[in-house]
Write a structure and sequence with these properties.
By secondary structure, the protein is mainly α. The chain has helices at residues 3-13, 18-25, 29-37, 44-54, 64-81. The protein has 5 helices and no strands. The termini are far apart.
């Protein structure tokens, strides 16, 4: 699931409208709609505020395999650079 889909699903689960979210974030409704459609990148402070409003500690889905692989590749790269 993509981040913007997760935001939309969480908002709908709380029965919040896009208009309400936009007001709470101090953005226009069309801007908020574009966030949920993935048309606009969400600024980090806005993303943090969305998570607070929706009552979730994280918006991004868990990706432990990706993180583990990235960490291993970075460590290998740094070893090769020494």
């Amino acid at each position: 699931m993509l981040m913007y889909e997760r935001i939309r699903n969480l908002r709908q689960d709380k029965d919040f409208t896009q208009t309400q979210m936009a007001e709470w974030l101090s953005v226009g409704q069309s801007t908020y709609s574009d966030y949920e459609l993935g048309k606009l990148n969400i600024p980090l402070p806005t993303l943090v505020r969305i998570a607070q409003i929706l009552g979730t500690p994280r918006i991004f889905p868990e990706t432990p395999a990706y993180t583990k692989n990235q960490t291993a590749r970075r460590a290998k790269h740094w070893e090769e650079c020494k």
